[in-house]
Design a protein that fits this description.
The structure holds two protein chains of two kinds. By secondary structure, chain A is an alpha/beta fold. Chain A is built from twelve helices and 14 strands. Chain A has an eight-stranded mixed beta sheet with strand order 4-3-2-6-7-8-9-10. Classes of the chains: A alpha/beta, B alpha+beta.
Chain lengths: 396, 503
């Protein structure tokens, strides 16, 4: 049978018409029928069930082009929460009661309560998330002090959604960026453990200005996916200095009666691993550049090189202590969040493979560390001396 | 060929086209010729037949089409004849000695005489002569040379073709003052006898290309050619294609540039649009001004047009696909604002897009066809209805209005109108594909379009040349426009006889 182009055209037309009827099957979903999850919180109940909460924006209350805004009376989002034996079960139960399809492709933060992290650990969460292609592995993960739902439900004022607020805080300098992908890869790797930002809700009780904010109070240290310790204050600064993604931070050191606020701007970390009598030792050398942000000693003469080295010494001492505190905490909780095992693997691949790798858990707490900090005061601000100081010399 | 019918018995002329009169000889006597003319032009009030006596000489007859000759010059010629003194009275002598007319042509047969006279010449019979003379006294009212309306430039010549073939050829010739510029005449259309000129550079244009153009023109058998579009469709390589395979232009400088590259242009009497072949995909992005502006600016402009081409073709389709199938591809904040603007819209995205695109196309069509005075009212209506009111009434979302207006603006940036309408057309199937299969559908559609583009040819030259088949040296003038000092060779994909432009 000979087919002319007319037959071809007819066939195409018929197929095109039939396929029009197919519209609506497949994975076509109008934006109006989707509930975009911007953030979620994971808690554990007393009987061991998961409690999953999701934050869903309400486009109708967001004030689009029409209507001129919700006026602040109604929140532009809602939070739903359910329980289930698994995370997915909880989500399925939630889905049944929702008119819109829950969509996790835009989840940007995942908050896990410390109780869940300390008991069940992160492994079931990683499993639930990596099985679904919809989930973004670039979402930020954090551990909350107390209920994760509480943190997610924080009444933030500066952003439209608390999830947005958490995300901004997590990617700012006050934290270290940890995504789901990082957590997964460090749980999988031997010789490295996952470290997550540790969040807390902070309240403002000023009259008429009642609000809640998200605060990064430190870092949660895990071992095999289970949270073992929380590094706060000094120890968290030590972790920052040891971390391979250094983020600038501020610190106030005390010099006698005076306080100096300094900004730690750059940190070059050198870790050298040596083996002495079969025991691994890490020589940590940290080159830090810092600047002065405020100095309460009005009479300090910065032209005097002795004063500068004095401040440098003070800070070196502080940083060294911080790092030592952090290492001590890591060794105590047996959580190698910096990945010292990987340093060892690079220096002694054979020994690592044959001996240390299998018993890293027992080796790591016994390792020796030497810490040397070299601080450089490279900037003292716009003025060399304090402008508030009385001018003693008469220049007129 | 038998001309006078014997069947009817009345001995009247029986013919379908002037060309059938090619064996009809000019008669000896003025009387016989007059009889023939009166028979041919029965009921034709615009034909003037004027018999007169050459002074001291034979009878003569002049005939012409009223309104197509310059009357004053006809008067002058007649005066010269009627006060003719001495000399021989043969046609040759009259042509040589008496007539103060620049163009004269002696013809022996009626067909040739009629074509010339109906084109505006003045015919002259002299008693006893076996030939007639065509006096080139063409004139009459014609539109003057104005700025081309479809291809305006900021910098560049402002002259455009008009409806008169000779003006157009002169405009080209005045740009290329070389005997190598050839203007081959053709007469096409059995009834309209439209004058057509094929122009090319001898020694540059590929001979086979010129021969092929001539062959295709000669093969045309149609009663009338009223616009170059007739010829374009009759001689193009593929009929079943939305893409134009022959370029049209109103600009003499564009024709001159094409001819110098080794292309062939076809000028048609009665239309300001000249045809240029071969034509390819990359010429869609080229405007004549690209060659007059600085090369960096021209290159960036071409890249902009390339981007706009994709926007014009795919923007609504991508919006539909991404918003209904792949919301994860939109940045979260943008997605939330789209969601907010779409919240109250009752239609699915594809219906919304179709409504907007159709009303936009309708507005554009209305704007083109309506008289200019009404055009303003249309644009006000369009801005109100398609723009604001539709959004405020909650029929379409603001995001969709932005997508559609971006598409519209992008499609206006293409310098070739005939290519832009093809893109406008293809947008709709892509939108449907996007609504059924998402991005996958768009990819399928684009693959189909690209494979079709790669398949078609224009006078044997692949449509996407020099991209495929690749000829690297021609890339200087595709997306980039190299400075003139670097473009020393003519495009290789046209196979010109002489590739050297500069030594």
């Amino acid at each position: 049978m000979k087919r002319s182009w007319r037959t071809g055209l007819c066939l195409t037309m018929v197929m095109a018409c039939i396929s029009m009827l197919l519209t609506g099957c497949w994975d076509r979903r109008e934006i109006n029928d989707v509930a975009f999850v911007l953030g979620s919180a994971l808690d554990i109940t007393d009987n061991g069930d998961f409690e999953v909460s999701v934050l869903i924006p309400l486009p109708g209350n967001m004030g689009g082009a029409v209507g001129g805004g919700g006026g602040g009376s109604q929140k532009p989002f809602t939070i739903k929460t359910t329980r289930g034996k698994t995370i997915k079960e909880a989500i399925d139960i939630l889905q049944k009661s929702l008119p819109r399809w829950l969509y996790f492709g835009h989840r940007r933060v995942l908050v896990i309560s410390d109780r869940l992290a300390q008991t069940v650990g992160l492994s079931p969460i990683v499993d639930a998330i990596t099985r679904m292609p919809e989930n973004r592995l670039t979402a930020f993960v954090a551990i909350s002090k107390g209920s994760a739902l509480d943190v997610l439900n924080a009444d933030v004022r500066l952003e439209r959604f608390s999830a947005e607020s958490i995300r901004e805080v997590l990617q700012s300098d006050s934290s270290i960026r940890v995504s789901l992908k990082d957590v997964t890869s460090s749980i999988v790797a031997v010789g490295e453990d996952a470290m997550l930002p540790y969040l807390q809700k902070k309240q403002t009780n000023l009259k008429g200005q009642e609000a809640e904010d998200i605060d990064v109070i430190g870092f949660a240290l895990t071992h095999n996916g289970i949270m073992k310790a929380a590094a706060k204050d000094d120890a968290s600064n030590g972790i920052r200095l040891l971390s391979n993604q250094f983020r600038p931070y501020r610190e106030t050191i005390v010099d006698g009666n005076h306080a100096i606020t300094i900004a730690v701007n750059t940190c070059k970390l050198k870790v050298k691993s040596v083996m002495i009598d079969g025991i691994a030792r890490f020589d940590i050398q940290s080159d830090i550049q810092f600047s002065i942000n405020e100095d309460s000693d009005l009479n300090r003469n910065y032209n005097d090189i002795g004063q500068r080295t004095h401040i440098e010494k003070l800070f070196e001492q502080k940083a060294e202590n911080d790092i030592k505190k952090a290492i001590a905490m890591m060794q105590k909780s047996n959580s190698d969040v910096i990945g010292f095992g990987r340093y060892l693997n690079r220096a002694y691949p054979g020994k690592w493979k044959n001996e240390w790798k299998s018993q890293w858990e027992t080796v790591f707490p016994k390792c020796d560390f030497t810490v040397k900090v070299d601080a450089d005061l490279f900037r003292i601000g716009m003025n060399r001396e304090n402008l508030a100081k009385k001018d003693k010399e008469d220049n007129g | 060929m038998r001309i006078r019918s014997t069947a009817k018995g009345d001995g009247r002329l029986d013919y379908n086209a002037i060309s059938q009169l090619e064996h009809l000889r000019i008669e000896n006597t003025v009387k016989a010729n007059r009889k023939m003319l009166e028979e041919l032009f029965e009921d034709s009030s615009d034909i003037v037949i004027r018999e007169f006596q050459i002074e001291h000489g034979p009878k003569a007859l002049m005939f012409f089409v009223d309104g197509m000759v310059t009357s004053s010059m006809v008067d002058e010629a007649m005066q010269a004849l009627m006060v003719f003194e001495g000399g021989a009275f043969t046609i040759d002598a009259i042509c040589e000695q008496t007539l103060p007319v620049g163009q004269t042509l002696q013809v022996q047969f009626y067909s040739e005489l009629l074509v010339n006279v109906l084109s505006g010449d003045c015919g002259l019979f002299v008693e006893g002569g076996k030939t007639a003379v065509c006096l080139g006294l063409r004139g009459g009212e014609r539109r003057s040379i104005t700025e081309p309306e479809t291809e305006t430039v900021v910098r560049g010549p402002r002259e455009g073709f008009n409806e008169r073939l000779r003006t157009n050829t002169a405009l080209v010739r005045s740009r290329i003052k070389s005997p190598r510029l050839k203007m081959k005449p053709f007469v096409i259309g059995t009834e309209t006898n439209t004058n057509v000129v094929v122009t090319y550079m001898a020694g540059i244009a590929n001979r086979k290309l010129v021969e092929e153009v001539e062959r295709r023109l000669n093969a045309i058998d149609i009663d009338g050619i009223l616009e170059s579009g007739y010829i374009e469709e009759l001689i193009q390589d593929q009929v079943m294609s939305p893409f134009p395979q022959i370029q049209n232009t109103e600009r003499p400088d564009t024709v001159a540039a094409a001819v110098l590259e080794g292309r062939v242009a076809i000028l048609v009497d009665g239309t300001p649009f000249a045809l240029i072949a071969p034509f390819g995909f990359w010429q869609w992005l080229h405007a004549s001004e690209d060659y007059y502006e600085r090369f960096i600016v021209a290159t960036l402009t071409r890249m902009l047009r390339m981007v706009c081409l994709f926007i014009a073709l795919m923007a609504p389709a991508i919006y539909i696909a991404v918003s209904t199938f792949h919301p994860e591809m939109i940045p979260t904040n943008l997605l939330l604002s789209i969601a907010a603007s779409r919240e109250a819209i009752p239609f699915p995205a594809v219906v919304e897009a179709l409504i907007m695109e159709l009303s936009f196309e309708a507005l554009r069509e209305a704007g083109v066809r309506l008289p200019k005075t009404v055009g303003q009212a249309v644009s006000i209506l369009g801005a109100l209805v398609v723009g604001q009111a539709a959004v405020q009434a909650g029929i379409v979302s603001a995001a969709m209005v932005i997508v559609v207006s971006m598409t519209g603006i992008a499609s206006f940036t293409l310098p070739r109108y005939n290519a832009a309408i093809a893109i406008r057309l293809l947008r709709f199937p892509l939108m449907l594909l996007a609504s059924i299969f998402g991005l996958l559908g768009i990819i399928l559609g684009v693959v189909a379009i690209v494979s079709h583009l790669s398949k078609i040819t224009s006078f044997g030259v692949p449509y996407v040349a020099p991209a495929s088949p690749i000829s690297a040296s021609d890339w200087k003038d595709v997306i980039f426009r190299a400075p003139w000092s670097k473009m020393k060779r003519r495009p290789a994909y046209l196979y010109p006889q002489d590739r050297t432009r500069q030594k």
